[in-house]
Design brief:
Two copies of one chain form a homodimer. Chain A has helices spanning 47-53, 75-80, 106-109, 144-147, 152-166, 180-192, 203-211, 225-236, 250-263, 307-314, 316-328, 350-356, and strands at 4-13, 18-28, 35-45, 63-65, 68-72, 89-90, 95-102, 115-118, 127-131, 136-137, 172-175, 196-200, 216-219, 240-243, 246-248, 277-281, 286-292, 300-304, 340-342, 365-367. In chain A, the strands form four sheets. In chain A, strands 3, 7, 8, 9, 10, 19 and 20 form a seven-stranded mixed β-sheet that branches. Chain A contains twelve helices and 20 strands.
Chain lengths: 370, 370
């Protein structure tokens, strides 16, 4: 078959800190071997995509044109991004689409005409060449929208529970817990009988999570937050937290509350309790610094948590078990909800950019490239 | 033999936040079994003792009397110390002295008249009952002063190198590196051929460490600190730091410099380099919050590090190997230096309290209780 041409979205950072995001035509050669060509039908904008797409560029005051935007990146961010300088980078971790061309390998040919989901990067495009072996075929009747977010959020939520178990904790805390990912985690923990403390930032989010069956939901905007959090931690025995926010004092306050629970009734030690309190920061909804008061003894850890290294460490058997569970629960446990559906061109218009870049909990956008 | 009476130092926190430190007579019964009674001859004031002795109490404005002081503890600190409320706590982790009475067990009797070092707590006292099996006999001719600090600093410095190796790093960074502990670490790393980056806070400290043979010394007060640090990290390949300071931005700046080195020449990843950068906070010379900019990707960890849990995890064989090395190097590699020698009564006088509580690097005080 002949070459296929379509639009793709590219993000390019220039030496002077000007970030250009634009639509550009891309021509795909005929696939060979295990390659297949996808007609991309739906790709979500996850917080993890925004770092590459826009970073901390000033989109408020950017220049918006037909099919492009140019925004200034802060000097500090530019210094941290030296290695992407002047490289047009495709964006979009994951998505779903239909296989319209395939290489000669049987695994590739078997996918022709099938709707699949995958996480190859560069999915903000009309067409994408991917490896057939990295694709998951969607269940019969599943829409591209249902399959678009089958990887990042579901595997991350499952990864939290796996990490909790592997490190010997028996309950966990999650922040920004009203997110799509947070809602999945509520369902997973209910299915697995794992106690979960959900930390959210408004009464509306409390109601939302209670509605889907969450037992422990605490609102960090409430006056009694500290007491409610300590009570939930005492109730569940949670000593590990997964934090999507990153900046500010929340992680520190949660560790301090864990320490308060751990040392209640114990004899005094100047070094704090012997209970290990662990925080994993997996997101950066707040880009400001993490402030740790260290009012929680010496038995604590705070670390970055990222899906890819976690999966590499977990091993093939664990990953396959996790993927099978996602496949089985695609339209139930792992269903995603979207605030809006946009085209590739919409993704570069001011109002839409400001909306999806606000990273509001539970307001995820979906790109429909075709 | 009859009972022995001597003075001991006690620290008591009252409900209203008033901290009283005072001298009180203590009567020790005749030792039995494995017990021995030490006449304490020298006990250092380590930063780890100050937390229990004074914490963050306002010693500047305290009331000082003959053999006591009363200082106000900040409300936040009082809340964190509920479990020590109204309990008179003995202080002083480690020290050296001569065995003047022993129980019937052969291990105890064998120590009679010997000068030993140990880490039982409560060593700010004229006499102390300890377990003979936890004592280390000092080499012939060694003074109590030479043996007083044979545990906390030497085992901590050795513990850093053990931790570095166990976690797969090949070089390390140490902050407040001009301390007694830091000087031991310089000698250990030279003996073991482990590359070490020393971070200090003044040109005088640079000179001091160079004098004892340190190769990499960077001064955080110098204008070129960031560049000098990055160069030293590139030179050594250090990806783990042990930090005595705790508060402020230093840990964050060191992790960022490690990331800068790790990602130099690598292809861009929005998640940062895959190199794990680890910081352990083992002290609190600065009690203010730890500020993490998170400008170092997602492959990082910051955690508390404490000697006792480390030794428990390391296992008996490792601990015995470490102790033997300390014994062999007591007057060379592991020699301590003191700014001043004080009596138990001096330890409660205003000028002396302000001096030792200033926690100035390299200005350690030694209590001579008899």
């Amino acid at each position: 078959m002949s070459d296929i041409t379509g639009l793709q979205l590219l993000s390019t950072l220039a030496q002077d800190g000007r970030l250009t995001v634009s639509l550009a035509p891309q021509t795909l050669p005929a696939p060979t071997g295990h390659e297949v060509v996808l007609r991309v039908e739906a790709a979500p904008i996850n917080p993890s995509d925004l770092g590459l797409l826009l970073g901390s560029a000033d989109v408020e005051n950017a220049e918006y044109g037909d099919g492009y935007l140019v925004a200034q990146m802060p000097a500090a961010a530019v210094r941290a991004m030296v290695s992407r300088m002047n490289m047009p980078l495709p964006v979009g971790n994951e998505g779903a689409g239909t296989v319209i061309a395939a290489g000669d390998a049987p695994e590739a040919k078997a996918l022709l005409g099938k709707r699949v989901t995958c996480v190859p990067g560069g999915m903000y495009a009309q067409y994408r060449m991917v490896d057939a072996r990295a694709c998951m075929v969607l269940p019969d009747g599943a829409t591209a929208e249902q399959g678009a977010s089958a990887f990042v959020n579901p595997m991350t939520a499952l990864g939290f529970v796996e990490t909790m178990r592997a490190e010997g904790h028996k309950a966990l805390v999650h922040t920004a817990a009203a997110s799509n990912l947070g809602q999945m985690l509520v369902k997973i923990c209910r299915e697995d009988d794992v106690p979960l403390v959900n930390v959210v930032r408004s009464p509306g989010q409390v109601a939302l999570l209670r509605q889907i069956g969450a037992s422990h939901v605490v609102d960090s905007s409430a006056e009694d937050f500290a007491d409610a959090l300590a009570a939930a931690l005492a109730d569940t025995g949670a000593t590990i937290v997964f934090d999507a926010i990153g900046g500010g004092t929340l992680v520190s306050r949660i560790l301090a509350a864990m320490e308060q629970v751990a040392s209640a009734g114990a004899s005094y030690s100047r070094y704090g309790s012997a209970t290990l309190k662990q925080a994993y920061i997996y997101g950066a909804l707040d880009l400001s610094p993490t402030i740790l008061s260290r009012s929680f003894g010496f038995s604590w850890g705070v670390a970055g948590w990222l899906l890819t290294p976690f999966l590499a460490k977990a091993g093939a058997a664990t990953v396959e078990r996790m993927r099978a569970r996602v496949r089985d629960g695609l339209t139930t446990t792992f269903a995603s909800h979207y605030k809006g559906r946009i085209s590739l061109r919409d993704a570069l218009s001011r109002n839409v950019v400001l909306a999806y870049n606000a990273r509001r909990t539970g307001e995820k956008y979906l790109i429909l490239p075709n």
